[in-house]
Design a protein that fits this description.
CATH topology: Rossmann fold
Largest sheet: 2 strands, parallel
CATH architecture: 3-Layer(aba) Sandwich
Number of domains: 1
Amino acid sequence: MKRVDQGAKWTWSALRPGAIIGFSLGYMNLLDFFGVYGTICKETGAAFRYPGLPKTYRVLMDCVDVDLLTACQIYLSTHPTAQNTAYNISNGDVFRFEQLWPALADWFGVEVAPPLKIPLTTFMPQHKELWSRIRQKYHLKDYPYDKLHQADFAEAWLSFPTDAFADCTKLRKAGFELSMWSEECLISKLNELAREKAIPDYPALKKGAAEIA
């Protein structure tokens, strides 16, 4: 791009995110996988185990909320001094899934158990019929299960053998300072999945049951 933008009236910017956390149907989406996997664990009574390499449960990682990513795209497009270059982007923190897993388990109302490598590309398709019953039970929208569970991507991403996070200093120096905790990001996006009726709203169901009791 730098070779062709000399003297051009247009500008460009590029962002290099890691895992993008947001609801979409398609490839490379950990959020949808967590939503479906957690629901399967809840409905079958299975323990909520980290299904990637046990080693990866403890490595450092980052991710980026899709709304934060969008805000950054708008920022770069409206600030000329930040244009015509590429940036890493993340939520601004790093985490270990070992730290986040209890919060995810709490959202679904399931028990955490030690990590166990699961062949997700086999495991998730095996639960397609179960998902159909779950969808009917909770009146979920008929999103294509094969596009929702993201097993291929999840199996690869959750088995990174080493730390995987980016240095975002360059972006901060360009003036974009928005950040968020990744745990809050994941929980807020699970709530969004529930609002979109992609997964059951377990926190709301738990609250309703408590009020009845």
